[in-house]
Amino acid sequence: MWQPSLFGEGFDGGIPAVEVDPGFHGLVRHELGSGAWVDLVPGWLRGADELFARLLRTTPWAQRDIRMYERVLPEPRLTHRWTVDQGLPEPVFADAARLLGERYGEEFTQVGANLYRDGADSVAWHGDRVAREMRSALVGLVSLGGVRPFRLRPHGGGASVGFLPGPGDLLVMGGTCQRTWQHGVPKVRSAAARISVQFRHAYER
Fold first, then answer.
1. What is the Cα–Cα distance from 193 to 191, expressed in whole angstroms?
2. Which of 1, 78, 81, 99 has the fewest CB within 10 Å, making it most exposed?
3. What's the rounded Cα separation, in Å, for the pair 52 and 29?
4. Distance separating alpha carbons of residues 1 and 52, to the nearest angstrom
5. Could you give the CA distance from residue 39 to residue 31 in angstroms, rounded to a whole number?
């Protein structure tokens, strides 16, 4: 079971503030090679426990079907998607999309969320389907809830690198990352529930 922090950031005795850091303080860029990179910003979103609880309770989660080796199987996680022009359920989503756009020079118009209910939920090695056809693309991820390994490896195999984003941490994959690298969230023996909130820009082929 996921448990919120007793002393979470932004707690003032009432409802914790949910907001993002406009200065991206603490950002560290990790160069992966072949034009791919990952930016990591610890604690970029304040009030992560409060946002996690709200999304867990109010999001209309659904389980999609995926094709694997000529078989159609239920994806081992739950998902939901929103677009900026249709309205977003949380004001902080719009703030985050705007700040990411200002920093990285793209208009982030799509917001999605993946729910990993326990250690058995996962996502296999992949690159974003449309973004991997582009020379460069950006995908921002904000982690909420439990901590799960997030791994990347060169496309086609090779030594992997890993991150352990905690509640409120921002991870941005950029450059050729979707085309030359793959990423995934592996199964683990035991894990608390985790939500990954993704921000994507419009992809022009």
1. 7
2. 1
3. 26
4. 13
5. 9
Question: Rounded to an integer, what distance in angstroms lies between the CA atom of residue 41 and that of residue 117?
Answer: 24
Q: For residue range 159-183, what is the model confidence (pLDDT) as tens digits?
A: 999 999 999 999 999 999 998 999 9
Q: Render pLDDT for 126-164 as a digit per residue (tens, 0 to 9).
A: 877 655 566 788 999 999 999 999 999 998 888 999 999
Q: What is the DSSP letter of 62?
A: B
pLDDT for position 6 = 42
Max alpha carbon distance in the chain (Å)?
53
DSSP structural state of residue 16: P
With contact defined as beta carbons under 8 Å apart, do 65 and 74 qualify?
A: yes
Pairing of strands 36-41, 28-33: antiparallel
Q: Residue 154 is encoded by which pair of tokens?
A: 């060169």
pLDDT digits (tens, 9 = 90+) for 77-130: 999 999 888 889 999 999 999 999 999 999 999 999 999 999 999 998 887 765
The secondary structure of 18-68 as a DSSP string is -EE-TT-TT-EEEEEETTEEEEEETT-EESHHHHHHHHHHHS--B--EEEE
CA 183 – CA 154 distance, rounded (Å): 9
Cα-only R_g, the chain = 16
The DSSP 8-state label assigned to residue 176 in this structure reads T
